[in-house]
Give the backbone structure.
Amino acid sequence: MKFTPDGGKVEVRIRREGDQAVLAVADTGAGISAADRERIFERFFRTAAATQQAVQGTGLGLTITKAIVEAHHGTIAVDSDERRGSTFTVRLPLSRPG
């Protein structure tokens, strides 16, 4: 939410796809450059836009989120381009593997 300007939109969707729950969080914010997308899940990484705009944060939120998702045998991905917003998609199994 902190990367979506006033008047923007954040949408949360959840659906079932086969044996997975799929959670998508999409915003109409600033988006993420291709170079930053490659590093977005690294500890303490902050995008150039976050640094320039003095957006508060430590660069741990997505790292922690990824660790939790993977601990539940899931995946997280981002689809984003600058000035287009971002969509983060989490896929979790509906039953325990094995």
